[in-house]
Amino acid sequence: MTEFADPRYRDIDRWTSETALRAIWESQFSALASIGPTLPALADVVEQAVPRLRAGGRLVYAGAGTSIRIAVQDGTELGPTFNWPETRTTYLIAGGAAALSVGIEGAEDNADDARAQVTQARLTQADVVIGLAASGRTPFTIAAIKAARAAGALTVGLACNAQTPLLNAAEYAILTETGPEVVAGSTRMKAGTAQKVVLNMISTQIMIRLGHVHDGMMVDMRAQNTKLRSRARDMVARIAGVSPEAAIAALETCDWRTKPAVLVAQGATLARADAALSDADGLLRQAMAASRTKT
Question: What is the pTM of this model?
């Protein structure tokens, strides 16, 4: 379906810009609607992924063209937002890193390259591999998912066409039926929107479950500039119930790490704060409760 020409847009090149833009805008709603039926499967993916990642596994994205570019955008933001280690995010890219900025002819058809990249990545049972292909038929992505599954990794296939090889190859199949594009075959549009939203949803909920979010705040963000340090100050002040000045003092003691700073602001030493968070698997709420009990 993603390759079909929708007759509704047959004369789009003759429409006014406002009319065409309205049609493009409206088409995005169907992309979002296509995600609704996948929610139970997405929840299963998260629940299966969390223990693997908590045990030290990696989050791995595999794909070609638009799909992998969207995936890299999702993955690279996990570090600054949630302090997810870059060493634990891996990309299997058809055509290699150069393909992120230019098209590499034939790269998406190279199944041998996919298998070689999986071998080089040394995937294990702790890893979570998400393969993306709007068509569901990209040889590189299918081969990567098959090889990753053979290595024992948790595999997820995300496609926009039903009954396709990628969905059949993955342990978990996520189908977002976005249908024909306004510009036939241009899957950077509706299909791309659906892929980005699904990845945002999966990675964000994983990070929430791993304890990188508290009361809707990203308490593991890297406070690397003035704006983010102000945000860290406000979070510590709010969660710990202290003044902004006390929050800053605690953050400076903790090298601007928000979660231990909350415990320090409430009276813990830095060593005790770090130990409490370690005992709680990084969950601030549990660490705070344990700290109150010991007090």
Answer: 0.93
